[in-house]
Amino acid sequence: MTRFLSSTALAALTMAAACAVAGAANAQTYNRLVVFGDSLSDNGNLYAATGNTTPTSPPYYQGRFSNGPVFTELLGFTVGRYTAGAPVTGSVNYAFGGARSDSSASPLGMRNQLLAYTGGGGTFGSNDLVSILGGANNLLQGVPVAAVSPNPTGTLGAMAISAATDITFITNSVASRGAGTILVSNLPQLSITPQFNQGAGLPAAPLADYGASTFNGALLTGLMTTAAANPNTNIIMMDLFKVGSVIAGDPGAFGLTNVKDTCFNGVTVCANPNSYFYWDTVHPTAAGHRLLAALSNDYLYYGDIGAQSTVQGESAFRQREDMLDLSSEAVSGHAAWEPGTRLLVGALTDSVTTDARGSVAEAESDSWGVRLGLDHVSSPNWRVGLAGSYRASDVQAGTMAFEHLSYGFDVYAGWRSGNVFANASAGGAIEKYDDIERVTSLAPIVHTGQTDGGSLGARVQTGAWYHMGGLAISPRVAVTWVKTTVNAYNETGAAAEYDYQKRELQGVSGEVSVRAEGGGESISFYVEGGYRDGLSDSFDPVRVGIAGNPARILERQFDDPFGGSFLASAGLETHMGPVRVSAGYRGRFGDKAESHSGALTFSLPL
After folding, report:
1. Cβ neighbourhood burial of 415 (10 Å; 0-12, 13-18, 19+)
2. Arithmetic mean of pLDDT, 394-414
3. Are 168 and 222 spatial neighbours (Cβ–Cβ below 8 Å)?
4. How far apart are CA 524 and CA 515, in angstroms?
5. pLDDT value at position 12?
6. Tens digit of pLDDT for each residue in 31-63?
7. Residue 90: CB partners within 8 Å, gap ≥ 6?
8. Three-state SS letters, 256-309
9. pLDDT-derived band at 520, boundaries 50, 70, 90
10. Are 21 and 293 in contact (CB under 8 A)?
11. Which helix or strand (DSSP H or E) is residue 49 part of?
12. What number of H helices and E strands is found in the chain?
């Protein structure tokens, strides 16, 4: 079942995506930012180096190749300029507009940018974030040359591979010097830029895309090798090529009206720059850079953002506990057991709210289900039963939503003698997680996925009954074991495609409670209160990577979201001829979560 965001929620997410990086940085360990690159990252270096003449400002914004800050200025850091003498110990930007990826002297090539940084005493630390984006100028200068050569694709392909080699070399150098995280961007789809999508440039568009694709393939191969050689550095490749066609295909969804033309044509500026993606023939507007920054956020903080998936396993774990409780309920009441076999038909519902914790947002779940079973009493002392169940839950945890389907099977057995009783239940379920949706940091792009898993569990309970006036009172204790597995899966979509690893949740909890029952033959009632807490658990951490990416798998640890829980339940049972009807409520009020469950059961003799 696909969920649709309300227009208000979508607007809020879109606004958050435009400036989410700064807020997200507070939850991370990036202490500073070092930038190497070209005009997409330049915060005024070329402008200063040319005596404040290139680019012409205004209409260009304070030496940026745009009408506002570039995306590296929107990553949550105050970044100084190399040409302004910014210290190498702080956040600093070495990018130059027009820079090639090589050792060009002017504008300062990216290999020389790195040399300038290290030559000035610059080092890298485990909490540093380094941004590397370049290679486009190599291709933009190479397309006209390749187009008139005897072998256009061969000529441009060699240039692209050489540029990718430069970027790989720079990345490897930064990683080997101890940088904690490196964000390396590939090249966008050049054919959709105004330089190639209009007029005389149109015939060169396929060649430009060939060059970008060749560069991107060689870069990915090089980064995979570099990442393997530098396991202490997290090398993340941001895919600009993939996302470009999505924005171009539905600009209105991103608050844009024009993704084809230039806002500034060299003479005049368009009336509404915020509605354009391109400022000039190749450079994004400030609005475009805000989208790039939001995309960066999706890549840079995948460990925290992907941690929302902890709710998947937790949902199945809790529901397995619920079904064991329900099975135990059938054989823990005070009424006498009448020999015979009965058919059980029931309906289930529940609502769960889990508090925000760390990087995981508050989660809400609403579910309904059905249960069909057989209950057999062989003597006043022994009772057994089995039941199958189906439950469907809609779960929302921050930017992630999914439908959880559970197909369960349980068996139970009870024994009583005098005022003492004991029972046990066990069962399992096939878990399906369908219609998984994650609203990415670049809203409204929504990623999708699906996976499955399974749950097992067992519960034992014992207690005794005591008569106090018109009530029967029963103190009781129980121990429950549950194990849940969520299988690995990948998202699909145009932003960072998260790669969720297999996860196992296993725990043992203990429970003490007191139950009171009263009423007559036609109608009876019960109330119960108690406390449940974990005795031991071994919840795997949530582990998230990025599919097809050198990025490392990051871990986030989460334990039982309920913690210690107070229990409260109540119910009624009445007879309608041979049919027994029971209705019950069970509430669980934990340190970090609460749930409310209801069950309506019809029992018919066979």
Report:
1. middle
2. 97
3. yes
4. 13
5. 33
6. 999 999 999 999 999 999 999 999 999 999 999
7. 32, 80
8. CCEEEEECECCCCECCCHHHEEECCCCCECHHHHHHHHHHHHHHHCHHHHHHHH
9. confident
10. yes
11. helix 45-49
12. 11, 25
Nearest to 122 by CA among 69, 84, 86, 83: 86
Residue 331 and residue 326: Cα distance in Å, rounded?
9
pTM for the model stands at 0.91
DSSP H helical ranges for 148-204: 152-176, 194-197
Under 8 Å between Cβ of 72 and 95: yes
Dist CA 24 CA 188 (whole Å):
25
Query: What are the distances in angstroms from CA 188 to CA 192, 225, 444, 559?
Result: 9, 22, 20, 41
Neighbour-count burial of 31, counting CB atoms closer than 10 A to its CB (0-12 exposed, 13-18 middle, 19+ buried): middle
Pairing of strands 420-439, 446-464: antiparallel
Average pLDDT of the residues of the chain: 93
**How many other C-beta atoms can be found within 10 angstroms of the C-beta atom of residue 228?**
10
DSSP state of 541: P
CA distances from 515 to 361, 476, 569 (A): 35, 8, 9
d(CA 200, CA 152): 17
List phi, psi (to 5°) of 312: -60, -55
- For residue 172, what are the contacts with CB-CB under 8 A and spacing of at least 6? 226, 229, 230
